[in-house]
Amino acid sequence: MRSVCPFSFALFDLDGTLLDSMYVWARVDELFFASRGLQLPEDYGKCLGGMSYRESAIYTVERFHLPDPWEAIVDEWMELARREYAQCVPFKPHALEYLR
Question: Considering only CA atoms, which of 40, 13, 19 is closest in space to residue 28?
Answer without folding.
Answer: 40
